[in-house]
Structure formats: C-alpha cells, structure tokens
Amino acid sequence: MPHGRAGVPGQGVHAHELALLTEELDHAHGAAGFVRLSGEPWVGKTRLALRLARAATHRGWAVACGRAARDGTGRPFHALVDALDDQLAAADPAALERLGPARLRVLAQVFPALGGSVPHGSVPGGSVPGGSVPHGPPEADVHAVARALRAVLEELAGRRGLLLVLDDAHRAGWEVAEFAEHLLRHPPDAPVLTVLVHRGSGPGAGRLASLAHPDGAVRHIPLRPLAREAAAALLPEGLAPLHRELVLRDAEGVPGLLRALSDGEPPDAAGAPHSSLELACGPSPLAPSAPALDLGALSPLARLAADAAAAAGDPFTVETVAHTAPLPLGLALRAVDELHSEGILVPDLRAGWSRFRRPAARALVHQAAGAAQRRAARERALTAPDTAEDTGHAVLALLETAGPPTAAQAALLESYARATVFTQPARAERAARRAAERPGAPPGPQLLRCQALVLCGRPAQALTAYARLWPRQEAAPPPATTERADTAVWTEAAVWRARALRLLGARPQARRVLRAVSAGDRAAVPAAQAELAALLLESGRQARGAALGAARRAVRCAPESDVAAHSHALALLAAAHAAQGAREAAREAAGEAGPLLSGLGPREAAPVVEAWRWLGEAVADGDARRAREFFRHGFGLALHHGQGHLLGPFALGLARACLDYGEPAAAARHARFAAAEFDRLTAYDSAAAARDLLEFIGRGPERNPENDFGIPLSTREREIAMLIGPGLTNKQIAARMNISVKTVETHLGRIFKKLGVRSRAEVVFRLGIPAAGFPPPDEECGPAARRPATVRSPAPGGHPPGSG
Q: Which DSSP symbol is given to 114?
C-alpha cells in the first residue's frame, strides 16, 4: 500500500480505535456487545471496520458485513440483507429448521435466500427446509423480523462468535434503528458483536446517537482526524517538501483527503503556495490531476448539488445551488439536506447559508468536474441572486474573463487585491495584474502586484517588475507624474522592494532603497523602519548597533493603537537586544510583544507574520523550547496565508531551535524544507546555509570525548567542553576548575571556532557529550561564544526559521 505504514500490525491509522474494537470482541464472548463507530466523511470508518473484520476472521469468528443502500431506494432491512443473506443461503439446513416455521415465514418476506419479498407471505416450495412455510401477513412486521433476526444471529454465532458490521447505518431506514433497539433490550444469548458505522452528524446519525442502555451496553467510538505525525506517516515517499506541507495543511488529518491530495501533481517548482482561503471559493488552486474524492455514497441528485455548491464557493444558500445546478428549489433543498446528513456540508455562521466541512473537499469536488462543466456552473453561480451583488464573486468572475477591464472593474479588482494581499497573495497578484491591464492604468495596481509577488514567494519576478516602475538610479525618488500615486503608496512600495532584495541576499541594495525614502516618510510609515531594522539584523555583527537604533525608532513611530505594527516593532526590538547580548532587555521586549501578537486573529496578524520569527530569534539562545514554538506558530501562519517568502526563513529557524532542543531528526527535516524553499526563491546563500546545517546534523556526534574528540582541542578545552553537558554555567565551570570566568569565556570561544558551531547545545551534539541541562543557562558564554539568533546565517532571507 503506497500510503504509509497502515499495513503494519498494530501500527496503522487509528491503531488506538482498532485496539478498542478488538477489546470489544474479547468482551463479547461473555455477553453480546454493541458499538457505534462514527466520524465525518473520508476519515477512515469503513477501512477501520474492514480491519476489525479481518482481525475477527483471524480469531475464528464468523463475520457478516453489510451496507445501507447508497441511493436511498433500498428495500427495508437492506443493510441486514446485505450482511446476512449469503450467510442464510449457505446455512446448515438443520440450523434453519431450529429457527422454526414461524420465524422462517417472517424472514422469507425480507431475505431473498429464503424466498424474498413474496406477496402475501407465500414462500416457493423448497426455499426452506420442508418445502414450504405457512402463509403469513401481507407485510413484514418489524418487531417480528427483529425477533427472528436475533435468533438468526444466535444460530450463526454458535460458540465461535459473530461480528455483524452495518456500514452507512445513518442512511438505513428507521427499521434498522428499531432492530438495534431490540438487540439492546434483548441481547442475543451468544457471542455477538454488532457494530454500527455511521456519520457523526445529520438526522440519521442523531437517531443512532439516541441509542442508549442503562447498563452502558452501547460503546461509542468516535473516529477523529489524525494528528499531524500520524497523517505524515500516511504520505508516500518522495513528495516535494512544499507539496508535503500543503497536503498536511489542506487535508486536516482526514485520511481520504490525504490520499486524494498527495496523489495529485505537486505545485510548479517556480510557483507559489496557495492560501487556505483560496480552497473555499473561486477556481480550485489544486493541480488538475488531483484525483476525485469518493462520492459514491451520494445519490445522483446530491452529487449534482455538490458540484453546484463547489462551483458557487463557500458560503452559499440553497437558492444559489438551485440556480447553479439548475434544479427546482424543492429538489435542491432535498439534495442539500442529504449533503448535510452525509457530513459533507455544515451550517455557516449566517442563518440559511452552508459551506463545505473541509475547504479541500470543496476544491477537489470542483476540480473533478470537466473544464466546460466548471465554466458553465461558475457562470450560472455568479448570476445567482445571492452572489450577483457580492463583491468577492464579482471579482472572481473578472479574474476568469478576458480583455482589459473598465475603469470601474479595475478599481474593484485593485480594491480586492489590496484587501486580500496578505491573506491570499497568489490570488491578489492575479487581481492586481488584471487591474493593471486597463490602458493608462496608474502605477498603484502594478506596485500592488509586485508586493503580492514578494509575499507569495516570487521576489525575483517582483524585482523585474519593479525595475520597470522605479527610476533607473535607485537612490532617486519616484518619478513625478500627473498620475503618480501618493507618497504613502511609494513608501510602501519601497518597503516591499527592499524586502525582495533582502530575501535574495542583496542587502546593500535593499538598504539604499530604504535610504532613498525621505526621513519624514519613514517616520510616517512604521513598516519602513521595521524593514530597515530587519535588514540590519541580517547584515552581520557590525550592523547590530544600527539595528537596535532602527528597532527603537520603529517602536516609537508605531502607534500603540495599531497593535499589529506595534507588536512587530517590539519583536524586532527584542531580537536587536538579543543580538547585542542584552538578554534581560530582549526578554522584556519579547514578553511585551508575545501577548500582543497572540491576541491578534489570523487576519489581523497576516501583515506581521514575520514578527513571530523575530520573537523566536530573540529567545533562541536562552530558551530553545519557546523559540521552537514561536517559529512553528509563525510557519503555520505563513503557510495558512500562502506567504511563501517566509516559509524558508521560518523553517531554518525552526531547524536550529529543534537542534538546540535535542531533536536532530526534526531539525534535519526542517533544514531540508528550508533548503528547498530557498532554492525556489533563488535565495542561494540562504539555501547554502540550510544545507550546511543539514550536513552538520548528518555528521552526527563525534567519538566520545572521554576517549578522544578526534578534533584538535587542548586539554583544558576538553575539560571545559565536558562540563557543558551537565548544563553548568560559566561561573560554575570557573569555580569547578579554579579559573576565572573570563578564562572560561575565552576557552569557549576557541571551542566554538574549532568546532564550527554557534551554541553550547551544538557543542554537546557535535561531540556526543551526555547532555542534561539544555536549553543552555541564561548566563552569557562570552563574546566569542554568543550566537545572536538574528545573525546566525549569511542568508538572503536572514537566518530563516522553520517548518511545522
């Protein structure tokens, strides 16, 4: 099986739930058992039930598996007929005789193996032992059938046991729920385990959820999406790092979505990641080769409604579905109700509106339709009453049309791009590009497009576009024209042009771009001062003082009412203090910035996602655990919003934090991701830094230092290195060896230089010293030993941070 290690006994997907089910098998030998297995679509319920069936067969149990009719037109007791009809057809005639003529007469009205649904209860001769069964009532009595079925279960179970699995039980008729209630009130006098597999929501699920027993005979096992580690284990080998992260993000731990998304083509190496919001509405950002989801459980009517809902995009109304399908409103209501009962749709926040439970499911359903079908459905959806006046839908329609837009349409496209540039940069870039297609368009849309290109991780392309807009002499101000954007627009453009240069490692040019903005403008736009501080932090040891000054100016000019900008400036200030070795000041600034950033919602935090990176850098040398969490949170936000320019920096920072925390395997994974992302950005200096870290991790620990380091350290240096592992501070080492703290710092500086490392944790890892006290103590290791997190790599995007 190509999707992971699910075939390994006891180590597959939902192994804990399988263990609970097999435990119920053991208990059923003493008394008949009853289990409800519930969960959302594609979460793995049917696969888990089949694994239970295989386990029961291996134990010698009889197994009967049935499924409710998927088209909603099944006969009464369809699931039970599907499970037991073959068993009855192959049953020993003596066992059937023990059931008695009365029970056989009732069962013959339901089971084809015993004569099927014969009018007036007549059963053809020879269909049961004895040739015929006395005539019965014209219609099957549900209670009589339930009693007869209980006797059948007892006969089939015998002493070895019987596992009865009824899949899609939420779709079964009310008579199956009545049968289940009967089994609870009158359990079979045999080892029988009944498992009802059903959706976790909807009317049918509610009826099954109401099954109860005073003795707690019903065990409910809810099947939830997988944790990240378990989901990652399902992915096939060889996925590109960015593709892997996008699949894990979009599938949200649902195995069926994992399979569908990972089987599709990876994003173009030169492309940009899509944001989570792009999955919910508009053209699907997934590769055209992405396989369709299994929608076989839906009726044709519900499948048509699902296609219409996917074309409309989240959220939508029943009227929109009816208009898009097209369907009469009554049929649309019935179809949408079925999609809700199947757990594919859920209510939206607005009354009367619905949305897909998983945005990736909506994108996959939309992608599965043919191109012509998608286009026709989209055109109908955009003219539906509930979407025709919606600005977002109007913009999406403009993105799918050809020809230059009118002035009003261009203004609408530019407004949409500006509103979504931080949360959907790839789509905002397309909107700004369309707005710029209007003849005589001002530079505003083009500058906005460049910003979106930087955000989604295409800085080289952005610089090419900037070169056509900016004066050839970088130090000159923007050209004065009658259509020139106001000063704030050009100042913002300078910030993002500098960001593109910084990402590509061209720091001197980036600094010149920021200097070209007048001092008054920089003070008016806190982002310019923040960008300058970030640039100086990445410019090496000699720029640390200037970085601290720029960070202080950024804090002063960022109003406290603008929580996002103010917290970003404080995070930069914390990183600048850490670069100077002022740990107390760094902690104080980080302690103020952290709660402010945490209080922001995802959309509010979108413009300042990089602030989490600077918080991680600020605490990296004193608290690897917190640094790891900061980098991980920032990476998740960048991935959610599709801000590809930050993925590499966050990944590299996370790799270093994991290594400092004693997790070399995770550090290697994040470093590998960082290298791939920097290659995609063409930030080759940063890519080299990530590969150097990966090589360092790959070398692993050297020989035990108690024997021989294999490295030319002096005897005193070896003694000091041995004391780092237990986590002793410089003062404690000095007292232990009866030398001064200054001497300890000097020796540590030499050790760092000889080993080519930047932290005490890396010394421990490099030499294989038994570690006990890491992250390292708060005390400084001396000037040569300090490793300001903000200057750890000579990389274009700085010494990046991590992957989640």
A: G
